[in-house]
Amino acid sequence: MRHLPDEPDGDRAEQALRVIVADDDPLARRVVRDALEAGGIIVIAEAANGREAVELSLYYKPDVVLMDLVMPDVDGIQATRRILAREPDVDVVILTSSDDDEVGLVGLRAGASGFLNKRAGVEALPRALRGAVAGEAVVSRRLTMRLVDSMRRTRPDGAGIRPVRSRLTPREWEVLDLLCTGQSTDEIADTLVLSSETVRSHIKNLLRKLGVSSRQAAIQEARRMRADLAVGEEPGGHFEAAAA
Questions:
Q1: What is the pLDDT of residues 61-71, one digit of tens each?
Q2: Does pTM top 0.70 for this prediction?
Q3: Helix count (H) and strand count (E) of the chain?
Q4: Quick check: 139 and 114 in contact, CB under 8 A?
Q5: Domain check: are 136 and 188 in the same one?
Q6: Does residue 88 contact residue 82 with C-beta atoms inside 8 Å?
Q7: What count of Cα atoms within 13 Å lies in the side-chain half-sphere of residue 213?
Q8: 56 and 137 inside one domain
Q9: d(C-alpha 20, C-alpha 239), whole Å
Q10: Domain tally for the chain?
Q11: Longest Cα separation, the chain
Q12: d(CA 80, CA 84)
């Protein structure tokens, strides 16, 4: 685990993005760090695995975590979920050598703001990370078309459509989506590969955030929110489709 100063001096540093680089390959971390710093971005810490990435993110609260996908102990997807569950304002951009669009969809579904291939060139990273912080989806054109296709195949009842600005975490939306399909606690646990206790905890949290006292009421609230999205009542009419 490599820690770097997180409060450099100067106006330029105050405006620069603060980034954590997570990769189990020390050489890859050095190459990425050099490219980011050359682009005016501050690398405040480096993590050699997903667990370190989570710990450093909760401590430093960076603007962006640049996350490798395959790491020991805790992988990039798990680390992304854990970070965003505690620090939803942090942007996570996954950087991987995988060309698998399905993996990219899983990463975005976990809450990542972007999914980039390492072969795209590290010189493009500073601009990509600034785009992520500005609210842009940092993905390839091919993956963008996969997302468009998933929206086209959204079910008529709106399952999978979620407000961009929501009190619920991505995981809580996953649980709520499955509740809407009629799945039980144990069935949701099997689908999401979670323990039943964890699912019950997510259900308790989403009920509290939605201000309802039962699962059926939560389902009705989800349907109401989706109906509002269908007529564009959310400010700006923004919505997202969960990966199919």
A1: 999 999 999 89
A2: no
A3: 11, 8
A4: yes
A5: no
A6: no
A7: 0
A8: yes
A9: 28
A10: 2
A11: 56
A12: 6
